[in-house]
Amino acid sequence: MEPPILLSLINLIASPEKYDGKLVIVQGFLSLAFEGTCLFLHREDCEYGLYQNACWVSVRHGDLTLDRAKQLHCQYVMLEGTFRREETGHMGVLQNGGICDVKRYQLRPRVRDTGSSLLTTTDTPKDGAN
C-alpha cells in the first residue's frame, strides 16, 4: 500500500484527476452539517456557502461518536482518507470530489493569536529597522 500523500486542499481541488483513488492527507475547516459534510478551505467559505472552495467528506454511520463529532464540527482539522472524484455529496452539489473511508480526524491547534499586534512599543525589530 502506498503511503498517504500530504497536500493542500487547493491542490486537491485544482487537480482532482491526479489524486483520484489515492490516500491523501489534507487540512481545512470541517463542517459536519446534515447533507453538508464538507472540508472547506477557510471558515469564511463555510459561513458564506462557498462550495467551490470545498470537497465532500463521506462520514459513514458509526465512524464518529456524537461527542467526537461535536469536537470536530466547525473546527480546523487534518483528515486522512481516500479521495474520489465522483463523490460529489448530497445532490451532487460539490463538484470537487470527496474524501471517503476517513482513517483519521485530527484537530489542528491554533498556532497564533491573530488579534495581537505584530510588534509592541517595547519590541525592537530584529533587523534593526525602525
What does this structure look like?
The protein has 130 residues and is α/β, with parallel strands linked by helices. 17% of the residues lie in helices and 32% in strands. The chain is globular and about 45 Å long. The termini are far apart. The mean pLDDT is 87.
SSE order and pairing:
Elements: E1 5-6, H1 9-14, H2 16-19, E2 23-33, E3 36-40, H3 43-47, E4 54-57, H4 66-72, E5 75-84, E6 98-107
Parallel strand pairs: 1-2, 4-6
Antiparallel strand pairs: 2-3, 2-5, 3-4, 5-6
CATH hierarchy class name: Mainly Beta
- The CATH topology turns out to be OB fold (Dihydrolipoamide Acetyltransferase, E2P)
Which superfamily, in CATH terms, is the homologous superfamily?
Answer: Bacterial OB-fold
The largest β sheet comes out as:
5 strands, mixed, barrel
Structural domain count: 1
Number of helices: 4
Structural class by SSE content: alpha/beta
Q: What best-fitting shape do the alpha-carbon axes yield?
A: globular
First-residue to last-residue Cα separation: 54 Å
How much of the polypeptide forms β-strand, as a percent range? 25-35%
The SSE order reads: EHHEEHEHEE
CATH architecture title: Beta Barrel
Widest beta sheet: strand line-up: 2-3-4-6-5
Average of per-residue pLDDT values: 87
- Work out the number of β strands: 6
Radius of gyration: 18 Å
Oligomer status = single chain
- The poorly predicted ranges are none
Keywords for this entry:
alpha/beta, OB fold (Dihydrolipoamide Acetyltransferase, E2P), 130 residues, five-stranded mixed β-barrel, 6 strands
